[in-house]
Amino acid sequence: MYDVVIIGGGIVGSSVAYYLSKYQLKTVLLEADNDISNGTTKANSAIIHAGYDPEEGTLMAFHNVRGARLAKELCAKLDVPYKQCGAMVIGFDEDDEKMVHTLYERGLANGVEGLEILDGKTVQKLEPCVSDKVTCALLAKTSAIVSPWEYALALAETAVRNGVEVKLNNRVTAISRNGEAFTVTTVKGKYECRYIINCAGLYADKVHQMIGEKEFKIIPSRGQYYLLDKAEGRRVSRTVFQCPTKDGKGVLVSPTVHGNLIVGPDAEDNDDFSVATTTEGLNFVRNASKKSIPTVDFRENIRNFAGVRAKSDRPDFILEESRSVKNFYNIAGIKSPGLSSAPSLALEAVQWLRSKGEQLKEKDNFIDERKRIRFKELSGEEKQELIRKEPAYGRVICRCETITEGEILNALRTPIPAVSIDGVKRRCNAGMGRCQGGFCSERVAEILMKELHLDGLEVLQDKEGSNVLVDYSKGGSSNV
Amino acid sequence: MYDVIIIGGGPAGLASAKACLDKGLEKVLIVERDKELGGILNQCIHNGFGLHMFKEELTGPEFAGRFIDMLRDTKVEVMLDTMVLSIEDDHTVHVINTVNGYQCLKAKSIILAMGCRERTRGAIAIPGTRAAGVFTAGTAQRYMNIDGYMVGKRVVILGSGDIGLIMARRMTLEGAKVLACVEINPYSGGLARNIKQCLEDFNIPLYLSHTITDIRGENRVEGVTVSKVDGHFQPIKGTEMYFDCDTVLLSVGLIPENELSKAANIRIDPRTRGPVVYENMETSAEGIFACGNVVHVHDLADNVALEAKKAGESAAEYVSGLRRADKKVVEIKTLPGVGYTVPQHVRVPLDNKFVEVFFRVNRVFGNSVILVKDEKDNVISQFKREFIVPGSMEKIIIPKVMLEKAEGNLTVSVKED
Amino acid sequence: MTELICIGCPKGCHLKVDEENGYKVTGNSCPVGAEYGANELRNPTRVLTSTVRIVGGLHDCLPVRTNKPIPKPLLLEAMAQLRNIEVKSPVRMGDVIIENLLGTGADVIATRNM
Lengths: 480, 417, 114
What we know:
- The complex is a heterotrimer of chains A (about 475), B (about 425) and C (about 110).
- Chain A has twelve helices and 23 strands.
- Chain A is α+β, with helices and mostly antiparallel strands and about 475 residues long.
- In chain A, a hairpin with a 3-residue loop joins strand 11 and strand 12.
- Mean pLDDT of chain A is about 95; it is low at about 475-480.
- The radius of gyration of chain B is 22 Å and the shape is globular.
- Chain B has three domains: about 1-115 and about 255-320, 3-Layer(bba) Sandwich (FAD/NAD(P)-binding domain), CATH 3.50.50; about 120-250, FAD/NAD(P)-binding domain (3-Layer(bba) Sandwich); about 325-415, Sandwich (Immunoglobulin-like).
- With about 425 residues, chain B is of the alpha/beta class.
- Chain B has helices at about 10-20, 60-70, 120-125, 135-145, 160-175, 190-200, 260-265, 300-320, 400-405; strands at about 1-5, 30, 45-50, 60, 75-80, 85, 90-95, 100-110, 115-120, 135, 150, 155-160, 175-185, 205-210, 210-215, 225-230, 240-245, 245-250, 255, 270, 275, 290, 330-335, 340, 345-350, 355-360, 370-375, 380-385, 395-400, 410-415.
- The N and C termini of chain B lie far apart (about 55 Å).
- Chain B contains nine helices and 30 strands.
- Chain C contains two helices and ten strands; from the N terminus they run βββαββββαβββ.
- The model of chain C has no long low-confidence stretch (mean pLDDT about 95).
- Chain C has helices at about 30-40, 75-85; strands at about 1-5, 15-20, 25, 45, 50-55, 60-65, 70, 85-90, 95-100, 110.
- Chain C has about 110 residues and is an alpha+beta fold.
- Chains in contact: A-B, A-C, B-C.
- At the A-B interface, helix 7, strand 18, helix 9, helix 12 and strand 23 of A face strand 7, strand 8, helix 3, helix 4 and strand 11 of B.
């Protein structure tokens, strides 16, 4: 019998797992996919918002501001790429200027620090590539960029180090209740527990309705992006937003923590949960970005992607005990600023358990740190020392990002090991660069085969079913 | 202290090492990131190599093998499985490998021979899902020819570059069905012989002025939509064709790999995306030479080897003390129709009796004349051609005597009859 | 009269073959084109390049080719022959892997050392 079952291993589920792992609880996180952070968490703008967007008094406002502060601490502790690069919301006319002032006032009311209103000239001075038609901007110094998948992985890995179980490939198919105990049935097995925390993102409504009444509906909203080569990574030094509209925060142009430039998203409700990009969507993003930064060189694009945000039919986050099922909690409808809010939302879960009379005794030996070797960032002496101890660091596998075999082996030996080529990428950046795995994916596949004892045909690009190789060639492998 | 450190052990690196050796250099080092020499030739198991260099038709591995044999038991040192992390303009090369760890090597001269990489799906922003099964042709070629795997059974190839065409034949022979080769330009990017022997031989349709406008499939590719494009490469509504396939191969161009060069502040030509070079293949950094696909994308490995020979010989001259830095520089400019030239700069007076200039056109020309003019519009040289196509590199030879008559910079243009 | 692209070398000459005139070839710039043009309409041949399995080598595949062109209609049958071959390292470039492939008189040879 588990105390808590967390359903969903995105940034929210991972945050909940992390905070619960501080206490003497038996917790399991069930994830449908074959990796943590493989849904909405990995495909978004990767921004920790300052907190001036949400209207005062909303859950979004409170949790964004508190979550952003927690994110800064967590990323430092858990060695997650994070940079407080600041953000600007730029305006071009009188309506925009009004909006910029509204956001400024809203930010102050929400408790956001480091806000300033700038005139067009100052904007130009700070960000020379911003359009010269800009007349004003809100500067938010606390806005930050982060590696969202590494953030979620770091939280989930730390939770595992502290005793939380993470079960991948465990899509929940049914939930039942017998007295005080729930039985959560997945495609792989059954898990009994006293509490359920539903962090199932795009599927949160379906998961809830496996046992509860229809209380909310998830409305998937797709956003498409361009990710550009590092050659464009210094086009801006801060995240540059346009003034928000009813559809969201609009198209942004931002550096990423990995040194690239991200441009997007559009916003489009799509009921089929598709993460496909479209000609129309990409054209929209490209054209819209030109209003802010006319000189972005889209020939340097290295990847397009679409992410699906889990909007709901309620205007605010859904953060409550189910109205129809006792001890079943929903953290749902976590649209933007969800990534920013996640740790703060997770702290609510701790409060819920306390409010039910749980003692929540802290563990004595809670591990609250994480370190990852990033070969590229070491000095010459450190590189030499590391290779002497572990020769695999002397072999570069991903040449674009300078990722060594040692780092790839680490990705396969973390508390939540990678099982796919993209899983390796998310853990150590191999294949993330300008050739997009053209050179290294074959070598990563070879390491996967060797380390995970896979046949070549079993190697996955990403999710289950994304097999890279379909057969042996005639002259082919000796494994035939 | 090495005389020359050559970065890359593919055709360019091998041929330049051979030239250094022939010029009598004692301390020559090839640094190769792979576990063997040969570079991309190892996976290019098809024939068509060596007709210029060796006067016979060889496969890629045989072409590489000839050079490797010539270097065997010579003074040329080879470091395999070794990555160059950076180079500096004082000719320091920072490398790592599993045996010696991190090392700073010093050389009198450096030859850049890092080759190129393939353009990816991102570079051309093909819309659609994230499904597995989209490969660059070279990646698929490596899986197939080195590792022995099939990347797919029903294949659509985007782009008609040579690697894509070669893979169309290779996959067909291995039992896959290649449904189509789709090219956005109104002409093929590959050699005419490859259209014939790789597509026509196997009845694989080539769709010119078409492109892939959607990739479907949740986890693995399930199909693609192909549309005709207009003169501005925009898809034309109503022309969509759907192909039921599990794989997309991309052969949409190559990009010289110059991250090391850029980090060393070597001047890059935005047209070639390779270093700007002088007639002796010297880059903007004195004593650093470049050759092969790192300079500009070649059509033939033979041409790579010839260019590399030049770079190797020039590096040897540099090591022996010959300096050209104070000579007058003539720039070779291009007019519309000509994509670029290599070299971009010529130092005069020439040490040789002539200078070879390579270039590619960016559209198809029929019967035409290539004109080299000076700033006074005087024709310095002219050359007749029956065809000039973007898929083939053109070479012209400007004699020293003619070059000496030129006033100011030169232009290269093509005039169709 | 049939028009062909010569595959003899990368130049890709535009050949014209006159079937009614003893398969006379024009448009070629060398003897290779003349021979190719004359053969292509009657008995087209190709050099086959492929791989065979190798045990104990650096890679799992050894590249091979026929040492002379074989009739084009035999290409797929020749591929089927290669499927059953497994060689052991070391192999030298030029080593014969299959003698007299399908009775064509062509041998399959290794194209590298491994």
